[in-house]
Write a structure and sequence with these properties.
Helix content: 40-55%
Order of helices and strands: HHEHEEHEHHH
Distance between the termini: 25 Å
Radius of gyration: 17 Å
Shape: globular
Number of strands: 4
Largest sheet: 4 strands, mixed
């Protein structure tokens, strides 16, 4: 389910506080999720109304901070991790997104956004790195086609990177009640 299904394709979501929580409540309570093991809520970066409203009104087992390794993105990642700690949401770890680009022709690897920014931040915050997601054209193409790489190319290195991160997250979450 996506907030994008609830608004016009070109309409921006310019909601604050109560409007955000109303929409989140509808997504949580009025969508037939079926039997779930986990529910993942993907939020924008930062420490605004969305993050605060969700963390204060919904029981959260853990947060995962995802960032590119560039300095400007790391500022938001750090603030996000600190905010979750402040509202007593466990931070399960960090993911370094767009960590490396490998040329499809010559296989040369380039760290377009920097090499170890998220790793350095994890050390500073005393958190673990859950994994790295490469900057790869197949990830974009498969997502754009509605067939994410973990479904359309499950044996690819990109899919394995996502699956490794998912396993690390599950390993850190409390065991769900039976």
């Amino acid at each position: 389910m996506s907030m994008g299904f609830l608004i016009e394709e070109t309409a921006p979501v310019v909601w604050r506080g109560l409007m955000v929580m109303s929409a989140v409540e509808k997504l949580l309570r009025q969508v037939d999720w079926g039997q779930l093991d986990y529910l993942v809520i993907d939020m924008p970066p930062g420490t605004g109304d969305v993050q605060l409203s969700v963390s204060q009104n919904i029981p959260i087992a853990g947060a995962v901070i995802i960032s590119t390794p560039q300095d400007v993105a790391l500022l938001d990642a750090r603030k996000g991790a600190e905010m979750f700690r402040k509202v007593h949401v466990p931070v399960l770890g960090l993911v370094q997104n767009m960590s490396v680009f490998q040329c499809p022709k010559c296989k040369h690897e380039t760290h377009i956004f920097g090499a170890d920014g998220v790793r350095d931040l994890a050390k500073t915050l005393g958190l673990d790195i859950l994994g790295d997601i490469p900057l790869h054209v197949n990830i974009r193409e498969t997502c754009d086609s509605g067939q994410p790489v973990v479904i359309s190319q499950p044996q690819s290195d990109a899919a394995k990177a996502y699956l490794k991160i998912a396993m690390e997250i599950v390993r850190r979450l409390p065991v769900p009640p039976t």
